[in-house]
């Protein structure tokens, strides 16, 4: 059942500027031999041009399902996804995707991985070299262009994955817990690397995470999901000043956002285990 709180949250999430990405009444039901499982109730929200949005929620709430539907990797049972007002019917170059698992091509160098999509598009070598230099500098991997993925740490691999996604100039960057497999220190560094890249590119980003501090540090807005079956519970605008660095995590304002989000997530996590 859709509550008044959920309806209000969806209304808040769709107000404002003309959206780059619209999730409109999107629902997902998985069918198995044992019956049907509703992973996602009809959910609506939007992401504006250049906005950094994180989706936060308890495990199994449908966060990744929303992202996969937006990417065109999963088909919605109901509703639709719009980019610039046009329906999404499958994967496309207008959306870049970064997964939690490392998805680099092991037989290609760092530089070749970054420019792989450009090569497929027929972009001339000189232009590809220019793009590679730019992103190698942006992600702090100058001098590693000839290395292969097996020679890189987990954090370095994800830097390359982010650079590869940005190099293809997508309209939207979709990120599914990309730092979830990293140790705490590397994760913190990667958050700052991503913010630096976003501040330069101003790409529209939809980022899935279960980490409350990460969601606050990165986002313009945090959308909190309910326990399964997932739906939008609340939109929390993050009003911390930009540009941000790691020191903001020690501020009173950051602590206030953290307390609010932890309370919301705890409510849903308790529902999930009862």
UniProtKB/TrEMBL annotation:
Residues in domain ABC transporter?
A: 21-252
**Root EC class:** translocase
Query: What keywords are annotated for this sequence in UniProt?
Result: ATP-binding, Nucleotide-binding, Translocase, Transport
Key word ATP-binding present: yes
What EC designation does it have? 7.6.2.9
Highest taxon listed in the record's lineage: Bacteria
Catalytic reaction annotation:
a quaternary ammonium(out) + ATP + H2O = a quaternary ammonium(in) + ADP + phosphate + H(+)
User: Entry's InterPro entries?
Assistant: AAA+_ATPase, ABC_transporter-like_ATP-bd, ABC_transporter-like_CS, ABC_transporter_ATP-bind, P-loop_NTPase
A Gene Ontology MF term for this entry?
Answer: ABC-type quaternary ammonium compound transporting activity
Task: Report quaternary structure and partners.
Answer: The complex is composed of two ATP-binding proteins (OpuCA), two transmembrane proteins (OpuCB and OpuCD) and a solute-binding protein (OpuCC).
- Identification of the protein by name: Carnitine transport ATP-binding protein OpuCA
Q: Which organism is it from?
A: Neobacillus mesonae
């Amino acid at each position: 059942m859709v509550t008044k709180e959920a309806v209000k949250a969806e209304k808040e999430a769709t107000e404002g500027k003309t959206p780059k990405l619209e999730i409109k009444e999107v629902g997902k039901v998985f069918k198995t031999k044992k019956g049907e499982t509703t992973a996602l109730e009809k959910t609506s929200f939007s992401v504006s041009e250049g906005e950094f949005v994180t989706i936060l929620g308890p495990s199994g709430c449908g966060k990744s399902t929303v992202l996969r539907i937006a990417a065109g990797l999963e088909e919605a049972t109901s509703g639709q996804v719009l980019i610039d007002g046009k329906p999404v019917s499958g994967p496309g170059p207008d959306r870049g995707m970064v997964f939690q698992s490392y998805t680099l091509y092991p037989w290609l160098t760092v530089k070749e991985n970054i420019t792989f999509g450009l090569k497929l598009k027929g972009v001339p070598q000189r232009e590809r070299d220019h793009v590679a230099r730019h992103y190698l500098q942006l992600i702090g991997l100058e001098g590693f262009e000839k290395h292969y993925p097996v020679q890189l740490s987990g954090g370095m691999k994800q830097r390359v994955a982010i650079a590869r996604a940005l190099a293809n100039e997508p309209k939207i960057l979709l990120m599914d817990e990309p730092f979830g497999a990293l140790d705490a220190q590397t994760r913190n560094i990667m958050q700052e690397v991503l913010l630096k890249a976003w501040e330069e590119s101003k790409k529209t980003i939809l980022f899935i995470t279960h980490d409350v501090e990460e969601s606050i540090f990165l986002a313009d807005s945090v959308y909190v999901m309910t326990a399964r079956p997932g739906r939008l519970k609340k939109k929390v605008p993050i009003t911390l000043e930009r540009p941000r660095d790691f020191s903001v995590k020690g501020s009173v304002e950051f602590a206030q956002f953290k307390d609010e989000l932890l309370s919301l997530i705890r409510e849903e996590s308790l529902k999930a285990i009862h």
